[in-house]
Crossover junction endodeoxyribonuclease RuvC (Glycomyces lechevalierae), 178 residues
Amino acid sequence: MRVMGIDPGLTRCGVGVVDGRPGAPGTMVAVGVVRTDPEAPLAERLLALDDGLRAFLDEHQPEAVAVERVFSQHNVASVIGTAQASGIALLAGARLGLPTATYTPSEVKSAVCGNGTADKRQVTTMVTRILRLKEAPKPADAADALAIAICHLWRGGVKARISAALNNSAAGNKESAR
């Protein structure tokens, strides 16, 4: 399976594409960062982000998109920009009819490092090892995007099966109530 992982950010949005399957080392297909001009109007920045993500999607043809879920930080302005970038990332995948998933930073760290409180250095080290790269991907946003893709490869199938089981159970409960 080919997954595009996205570490959303309004100024720097990390993007990584990985081929792989659960429990096995993956192969990095592409990695990069979509940048926007912090001085540009917001609408132009969001459009530039969308254009950059579309280019990655068109070029690498992933089968799924995984995005880091926005979490509360102390800097509200930063959270708002990250949330806007996250929405663009989810929309980019959905526009193509691709399955999309979100993961919290601790889910990604736990999947890749075995520790939900791992620091950025540890995540980058593990991504480099898992993908058998000669050097660490830079900047950290790019390494994080690869980690998100790996997380989806390794955990996305389980997450989808649980969701399907819950949906089937809810549908069965509705039928029983009739």
